[in-house]
Structure formats: C-alpha cells, structure tokens
Amino acid sequence: MHVDQAGRHYTTASGERREYPVYLLRRSFRDDHGQPRKQTLANLTGLPEESIQALRMTLKGRTLVDAEAAFEVERSVPHGNAAAAHLMAGKLGLEKLLGPPGRLRDIAYALILSRAVRPGSKLSTARWWEGGDTTLGTDLGVADASTDEVYAAMDWLVSRQRDIEKRLAARHLSPGGIAMFDLSSSWVEGAQCGLADFGHSRDGKRGRRQVEYGLLTDPAGRPVAIEVFRGNTSDAVSFTTAVTRVRDDFGIGEMIMVGDRGMITKTRIKDLRELPGMDWITALKAPAITALARDGGPLQMSLFDTQNFAEISHPDYPGERLICCHNPFLEAERARKRQALLAATEKELAGIKASVDAGRLKDPDKTGIRAGKVINKKKVGKHFITDIGEGRFTFRRDEEKIAAEAAFDGIYVLRTSVGEHILDPAAAVTAYKSLKHVERDFRITKSDDLDLRPIYHYLDDRVRGHVLICMLACYLTWHLREALAELTFTDQDIPQPHDPVAPAQRSCQARAKDAAKHTPGGLPVYRYKDLLGHLSTLGRQTINFRGQRIEKLTAPTPVQARVFELLGTPVPLTLR
Question: Which of 285, 351, 358, 512 is 20 to 30 Å from 302 at the Cα level?
Fold first, then answer.
C-alpha cells in the first residue's frame, strides 16, 4: 500500500493558478493475467497534512513513537551571560594575562567571570559551579573546586598581582601620558580583619571599621592597578604609593598624575618636584581659592566675562599654572543645597529653643551639646551664631559668612605643572574632569555590578585577593559595557561641549533612545545588569531522545542574537 497524490488545477481569467490536491490510499497488485493493477482503498484528502505524512512513513516501514515518551529535556542551564563574559575575556586575553596555565589559574579566571555575571560570596560561587546552575563551572572544569582550592587560587592571584598590573599598564599607560588615581573605602564585617580600621567612610557607614583601596586607571577609566590600604589611610599617603607603582613597578618615568584636591597636597607636590618627569593636575582647596581673590588678587569674577575658564599665575605657586573655572550650573546647585541645609538646621534648632523657652531644658551644657549635634550633622556650624545661657538659647544665621562663601559658588581652580605646549587650559580642565571615570568604576565595583562590599575576609591577602578579583571583573565589565552600549541606556554619541567647564549633555540619539525605550532597530533597551539577566535566559539544554543525549542551545531572542553580533561571534555551545 502507498499514498498517491493526484489532483487538478486550472488558471483563472486573471492568470492565478489554483491547485486542488487529492491524496488517495491505494494498493498495488497483479491480476490473474499478471498485469499490474491499483486499487483505491480510501480518500485521504480531508486528513491533516501531518497525518498523511505519518501514514506515508508507516507504510515505508518506519516506526513512529510518541514524542512526549521518547523526548526528555534532562537539564536546562543558564549559558548566555557566561558565554558573553567569556567571549569578551577571550578578546582581552584575560586568561593569559593572569599567568601560566594550571588549576589555580582556571579557578581564578572562573572567579573573575562569576563576579562579572553573578557576584556572590566565594562559598556561594563554588556552590553555583558545583550545583550545575551555570555552564561556567562545567565548561571551565572547576565544578568540583573545593573551598580550599578557591582560597588557594585567591592567594595565587595575589602573588601574581604585580605582574598582572604591569601588563595592564603596558597596554593602557604610556610615557608622558595621563593616569587617574582616586581612593575609596568599603566596610568590613567581623572584628578580625588586620587591615580594617576606623576612618573616613565613603559609604556613609559611620562607626564601622573599613579598608581603603586606591584605583589607578587610564583617562578613559580602564582599571590598571589597585592597592589596598588600612582603613585610616589618608588620600595623600595612598597617592604616594600610586606614584611609586608607576615609576618603580611599571617603569614609567614620565607621567601626568591626576588626583583630587585631597589627594595631591602641598607635601605630595613637593615630593613630585623631586621626581623628574612626574607632573600633576589637581585642584585648590577653598581657603587657597579665597586667598587668590583677597585684596584684589588675580582671581576676580571679571575673568569669566567671555568664557567660563581663564589661566592666571601667582607667586605662591612658582612653576605652576592656575586655571580658574566657573560653572554656573554648579553655582546654582551649591546655592540651592546650602539653603536647604540651613533651613533644615534652623527647623531642628527651633525645636531645641522651644524646649528651652518652655523650661524643659535649662542646663546650658546640655543645650550646647544638643545644638552642636544638630549644627554639625549638616556641616553648617560656621554659618550660625548661637547664644546659650541658663534657660536661654538663641540662634541666627551669620549672613556675612554665608555671603562670603556664596561668592565662590561654582568656582574651582586647577593647579598643574604641565606646560601649555602639552595641555592647553581646555585640555587640562578636560583631563581633571576625567576623574569622573574613576568614580564610575567605583560605582560599578561597589554597588552597580560587582558588589565588592561588604568585605567578609579577615586575612590581609584574602582581602587583597577579593579586591583584585573585583578590579579585574571591573576591567572585563568596562569592556562589556562598551561593546553592548547599543542595547543599554549608555550614550554612545556624547557631544563635545563648547567649553570643557560646561556639564556634559546627552546626545539627541540617546534622548530618543531614552524616550522610546528601544533602539533605532526596534530592540528593547535595558539597564546593563538587566541585560545580563536577559542573557542568562539563553540556556543550554541536555536532551535525551530514546537514550541518546544531545546538547542544544535554546533559540536566542532578537536581543540575545544582537549581543553576540556585537561581540563578533555566534553563540558558542560550550565555553571551551
């Protein structure tokens, strides 16, 4: 028996061809005289196409089975996020950068990738690999890594830190170029960490011990080196270490170091003067700015009549250039913030005065303590005049001091040893403002993407290993963010401002993307972290078909497909 296809067709007056297929179940045989004959057993035309095809296969001797009974998906594991990070790491040569091949390098590399796509504790990460909740552990051969091996890999990575950073410096820093340096801190859990101490908390965690770490980057913000310090280390001391690293470890004798006003102090500048080839760009503190304007000094508002920056000189800064900048937007913001702080402080002081006037608070010492806490909480004590006595408390604003401070709202002054033939005033301002890229790296590392804080390790080298892993993951994330900027809210076409002091503006293309929440090609736009989450839904499935195991990737969504187009490669089935 077999299925025959017949039918008829005709062409309409308009030239359209119409077909009417007919499917017949027929039997072939020979009659009594040996002649071939066919017998129609049934008309199958009304059956669905799938049923007709199944009957054809059965008549050809093939065995049909129930799909649900023969087909089983044994496991589906997130793969897209790890694959994207691994592909970018391959472009950066990250594995080779870490050191020679070996078990410890594999684990250290897996720790960095894991921190970039799913930050968590070391124990949580090892369980993530072992449980098969990602293809990363299996493909990199670290699914069976023990906790002791993870810690050994961290120790190995710390032993390789100087060599790793030297290679990064060779990639991104050049003699006579610019290097950015800034300091941050994170609090420590527990009481046994040898590096933890009380200090100025950048996280706003008062009363918590912390460690500090200084980050060195190129002008674009690519991390090059990181150093961990005790929690009470000053900005200036950490900067000295950065200069030593550049000169001694990286072998770069000529460099322009950029740091904020607390980083490059008078003492540090004095030290830099003794190092040929080491220049700097920093800013003056408020008292120094006030001194430049006192008694008809060179800093006057008339400097900004035609543009927002001007270069001056002063005998207190021999061999240096001073570049005065006036930012009207910053001026308005500082004025607004000052008024808000003064009003909030006055409201709380009024509550204390009401208690004194009502006789509930009589002791002048107690009144002074309460008033001091209120004034110091918002750092506006210098703007108030208070009178405290037995059963008496009055306060008022010091309008003279407020006006004196307001006169310098929006004004900052850069000081630099770099000659104008190397950096003109506009370029010097741009270089100083590039410190924002280091601050962005700190946000990526501490909160947005990598969750460096809080720190749970207590051995010094384990803390250093943890911070180094986060720095290298930040290096990887920096490049991933750049590559995938099209699919995020990142502005890829930031317009150059007419002067370097003016705040950056988003481009028309970015504003259009913000409003539409889609790319010009119609793909949805994500926050970077949400884009990684969407990539994780691209899974690798293990399929069992009648005892035969097959590994297949789920069909990528248009966004996932675009991610790997931007990375320049198809979605790999495995990481190795």
Answer: 285
